[in-house]
Amino acid sequence: MQMQKLQESIYHITVKSQAIFAIFKLLPLNFFIFLFIFLIFSVLLRNPQKIFFILTRKGYESVSVKQGF
After folding, report:
1. Angle in degrees, 0-180, between the axes of helices 60-67 and 48-55, rounded to the nearest 10
2. What parts of the sequence cross the membrane (predicted)?
């Protein structure tokens, strides 16, 4: 019984450590995504037309007409 509990606790520790390592491996990617989103929002606050132009080049005219840019 005690051996089974010990094995379970070791298993939980390894799963947690694997999850932490996975997070650290993904950290640069998440950081770059966050940076990209931050840049989009900073541009959006300064110049909203640019964002609509970047996101939908075709829909830019309709957006500009609706919003009166």
Report:
1. 150
2. 20-45
Give residue 46's pLDDT. Answer: 73
**Is the distance from CB of 66 to CB of 56 less than 8 angstroms?**
no
Give the Cβ contact number of residue 67 at 10 Å: 10
Stretches where the chain sits below pLDDT 70 are 47-69
Angle between helix 2-46 and helix 48-55 axes, rounded to 10 deg:
120
- Output the pTM of the full model: 0.29
Q: In terms of C-beta density within 10 A (0-12 exposed, 13-18 middle, 19 or more buried), how is residue 52 classed?
A: buried
